Amino acid sequence: MASQEPQPFHWRYPELDDRDLQIRGRTLFSIVVLVAFILLITLLFIYARWVCRLRLLLSASSDLPHAPPSQPQPQPPQGLHPSTINSFPIILHNSSTMKTVDDSECCICLGIFQNEDKVKVLPKCHHCYHSDCVDRWLTAHSSCPLCRSSLRADSPV
């Protein structure tokens, strides 16, 4: 009995053995394209989620105080040196010498010049202001309040 040859495997249920099920040509190509498309869309979705999470983490870490700034912060405008401000000429206002409307009003405080007011004349543009008004302005800015021409010594006229 040991010399008995093994029997080949046969289905016990012949109704499950469908020899007519064959995938060829266009059907096979369509299935492969559909599976590849679904795989591609899935990979793109996973990549998009990864990029969004990375951006969220980077923006959250930039809000921390120890994180370096992404762009250099602009320096606040600096005014003129006090010695430069004091070098500008001061005149006493006289309504008979000031002929134009521009020369009769301080554009900083909008006050009208009275006789004997101390008026400072800016050298490059010759605009006039109350001495106290323009001194405060020039400690924070380096330009004329009216025409914005630079009053720095190294700037062109």
UniProtKB/TrEMBL annotation:
GO terms for biological process: protein ubiquitination. PROSITE patterns: ZF_RING_2. Coiled coil: none annotated. Residues 106-148 form the RING-type domain. Its EC number is 2.3.2.27. The keyword Endoplasmic reticulum does not apply. This is RING-type E3 ubiquitin transferase. It comes from Camellia sinensis var. sinensis.
